[in-house]
Design brief:
homotetramer, five-stranded mixed beta sheet, six-stranded mixed beta sheet, alpha+beta, 365 residues
Chain lengths: 365, 365, 365, 365
């Protein structure tokens, strides 16, 4: 899938925090987690509603193949609830996720839900017949500055395709999948991902972030603490809309839903360190899941009890810190890996220029 | 629309609380609020997935015609978050509703969202182009015990139809619209509605409830305090699935979003008085809105300030009590007005038998 | 301690729900849980601020003796947050309780906290030196209608006494301890308690409630579904203040903090079935804890992992239903067991008259 | 009160954000808001429990003198709920604050509550007699690393003193009042404050922060984006305990409780920009209030309606950004203004060394 080398922060001699990274430095460093994109990028020139230009897509995350039968413990944190996150109410109540997770644009949430429904029914033909019903988990950002949003170009089939292409490999970042039409800090944004390995009481755990960046004003952007936003000369996009930043945290650490909600909160601290203010019109939220402690759809008939090993709260701090570091890095990687995109009405969202960034980082301040 | 006379509690000489009712004793007693159903009821015999039998529908609630330009203040309360309530995160953050509200079945939430999207784009063609994007408000209950749920029979067009047929008249209750396939307390449930007039400091305000009842075990059912469920001889449906109860509260009292969330909580107390336990697998939630204090989409250029009159918290108690009474009554009306429905595989959900109810109510206990 | 026989619902031929009761039908049916009261009842006649009359007290609940070293998993639910519940923020974050719990009046929360602090420091002399600091859990109701509230008559020593007298025996109910000066449904209220045994997958678990009732208007009172409040001839107290109802749920079922918060919510449904509206000025909340799955203050050095058995959510329903039944019964027991109290300025809060209740219950309705 | 010149960020040629500061650059720039400290600093050498050394105090914030009669709208945000914040439940329910606010140490919360109770009863002698009861707002941080915490040295009288000394002047920052014994980023922390002026639709509003910093590990400390913590040579304190950071935001902008909770959330983003991770054992929370739109204790008899002007949500962004900037600056000012304190057992918490900081800030990175 990934033909292009991912740009990494170390290419700019910057780092985020003190923990080491996973081998792929992305969400699929958590064993078993799969990611797939469908990217829709076609047409150019003036907006013709329903006909493009199309700059959008869907990114699917599969915590495990048998997600309905073996659910993952999950938590969430809503920093600013502008937008839609389908399935969120059930995550909050049940502390678990039992469907794939998908990211897309605001007006395609419904189509993408229908794609996940198809996937779920193919795998579990008794759902809503002899078995329970379910609600897909879909998060969105508004890409209407570049994309023909009203056209609702992401279909159920595009979603199925992303799910079927999902793999445990490294995946493309930047202006791909759900990130195709995103703008972050008034630069081209999109998908970014990073991972950390933390050692807790002599055990190593992986914690990783995948996000879709579509938020922020240029002037607050900081990279590794440097006030890059106020120094960049890159033109602002001609149109401005507040956007969102949606974050998925995955880990293999044995934590429960309460702890995962706390971890999701810390991811957002990494966003804050890049200058995120969580403006009124931005939908800024994180969900977090763990592949440890699978939750059976129906417990074994012999017992109503789940045998779980749960990390003591006293050992969470490294996971908290690593979640914020990985999220900060994922956000900067979304900018570093996105290329300039010309969208509807020929409007450009410019990529963060690498050479200019190097110069700013080398300044005394 | 409503050709059939609505069965009322007073037909059974029972009443709920001390407040008087509005003239229609339903949600449309709140001036300007419109309700419309699309009922899908076709086929019989064994389930043929995708082909029926179909026992489902959609019920649309329009707080005001110009809901995008003049939003309604809103609140919510999740008693048990099993299921999906799209748009909820934004209600919680913004304290407002800016789209129609629709009720439907679990796997048609996406289609119904697309119906509301069509309605919104027809009325506001610049959404997602020069204007903001948006997320529809859709709540669901699982009607798969009676209905071919996997068939996803409620379409965007059915939703548009319900919205276009919505009126300020009295509307049908029981097994209609989203209530067509619902089962409550193992009796036929569905749509129920009731209203109250409360006097506060010499001003009259209306508060009303519309709900879709699809929850509960027979043995806990109480009607006007009487243990009806344990005394009824009506057969239980052959299949049992826990369901949900979703509630919409409307008022014209000048309250804000914080107060509306408190009112939504009190509606659920009325559910409790009918014996609702909010079992694990039930999605029990309420949203509440007021038609007072419209919130302009963009405030007047001359001022960033909204001039709102807000009821002092010290005057809320009557609204709290009336919300719980109206909700209790709406739930019982959903049972009283639903007729027996034979669903997929010829399974019956029997209506609450009126004569037997009269007998039980006349017993000493 | 308990010299007086507790009045039970079966004395009136009423029952709440379908589960059997524990042997003592109170909170101490949960093995290891201790309860103790200090009752302050002195003086009569007009209020002399600081000098009485005194109608107040403190009720202490000790989930386990070694509560700091072996904490209990805990959850909470705030139905209406009028009033103070110290320690609540930490329960919500950590999902545990690590100090005794005490109930008292509104202006003695601080003194009672100091009593718990003394108890904690006696048992754990390194707290706040080499060990962590802590925050006591204290819930309050306003007894100022009967009591010299400004006098702050409950001291740290009274709290220590209640903790030291706490036992696993049956304890007095009604106008005792923190319940001494309480008024509920404009009748004499106070401490009530009840328990249930539930069978889950062939295992028996106990779930029990202790509450302090100090809330409600007479006209909404229902007992076993009957509209007792509107039929009673007992005079209303001359003064009226909205009060509160604070609830403690204990269980030995192996549930986690998320599940305990859900259980706490269901307890409040039992309050609703007695006619509770949760008026604006009422502080209505529940905390719930389990004695299963003790949480070590510091985990064993050999492992950062807690080995917990957790009940699958699919098996919670009986606990939900039993929590609501026990809470409904506890509330009615608080009324049945309270005797008329004459408070400051010779104002009477009359007990629920047993004979009149029997007559009302025997009516056809 | 303030004899010492406050150290300001501009002394180090650093700034936080783009907004201008108020004339005093502290909380009392919001008209009418008063702040007062009582500082307790006595004894030295080894800990003698109950006898010192004493390094603690109380800081009182008075939103307005007539706070009971004219309450302030308020919101809150709990980033990590380790610790106690009395009165929080009522802020969350009612959306207002009606008592003074005080900051102190963990085991003196009760004494400080009693101090506020005395103040309230002096001003409003009918509380808990003919008028309602109330719950004071007290937030705490654990100063036991430097202070004899078990000694509970802050009394009700110390609190009354702080309230009586409270003024609208500039106030001391650093190791004063509740900040006397605080340690932040393993440097001497304590009280810090900053303010911003924001222009919204041609109106100027003030928003200001006062905080007590007692949290964090050295290695994550950033100042104006620079990794100061990892470069400082200042010795770490010999003992380490995780602490807390409690934040009070005041504004005169006409916002409501929902909006104030959103503002409180943004303040915490400023903490994140200094490197705050919100570790497990840290109590990190903010409350926010506005002096606009006073809420009468009892509304005028002629009307149950409050006439409020409320800022449209579309105009909140500058307040969000300014709250985060002021909080970041307040935190750094707490470090810049604190002097080295030698506490119990002769342990030192070293001040941030100004000269070394200047050198680090002048490095290329």
């Amino acid at each position: 899938l990934s033909k292009k080398r991912t740009i990494q922060p170390q290419d700019f001699d910057i780092q985020f925090g003190r923990f080491s990274k996973g081998p792929k430095n992305c969400l699929t460093d958590v064993t078993g987690v799969k990611v797939g994109h469908t990217t829709l990028n076609s047409g150019k020139g003036p907006l013709k509603v329903g006909h493009g230009p199309v700059r959008t897509g869907v990114t699917a995350i599969l915590p495990r193949e048998d997600i309905w039968q073996n659910k993952v413990a999950a938590g969430s944190y809503v920093m600013n609830g502008n937008g839609e996150a389908s399935g969120l109410m059930w995550i909050q109540e049940s502390g678990l996720i039992e469907t794939p997770i998908a990211l897309t644009n605001t007006l395609c949430v419904a189509n993408v839900q229908n794609g996940i429904i198809k996937w779920m029914l193919e795998k579990n033909p008794n759902l809503g017949i002899t078995d329970d019903s379910f609600s897909p988990v879909v998060m969105e950002c508004d890409d209407s500055t570049l994309n023909d949003l009203q056209g609702q170009h992401v279909s159920a089939e595009h979603t199925l395709l992303a799910l079927k292409n999902a793999s445990t490999d490294e995946f493309l970042q930047g202006a791909v999948g759900a990130g195709t039409g995103m703008i972050s800090y008034q630069l081209k944004g999109g998908i970014g991902s990073s991972s950390r390995i933390v050692s807790i009481n002599n055990e190593n755990y992986t914690i990783a972030v995948l996000l879709n960046s579509n938020h922020g004003h240029r002037h607050t952007l900081q990279i590794a603490g440097r006030p890059v936003g106020s120094q960049l000369k890159t033109p602002l996009p001609e149109r401005y809309k507040d956007g969102s930043i949606v974050v998925v945290v995955a880990t293999d650490a044995p934590v429960d839903s309460r702890q995962l909600s706390r971890i999701a909160k810390r991811a957002m601290l990494g966003v804050a360190r890049t200058g995120g203010i969580s403006y009124h019109s931005s939908g800024d939220l994180a969900i977090a899941f763990t592949t440890a402690n699978a939750i059976p759809h129906r417990p074994d008939e012999k017992s109503a009890l789940l045998n779980h090993k749960i990390l003591s709260d006293f050992y969470l701090d490294n996971l908290f810190e690593a979640a914020s570091d990985a999220c900060e890095e994922a956000l900067i990687k979304s900018l570093l890996n996105a290329e300039t995109v010309i969208g509807r009405d020929d409007m450009a969202a410019y990529a963060l220029p690498h050479e200019e960034l190097l110069k700013i980082l080398s300044r005394k301040n």
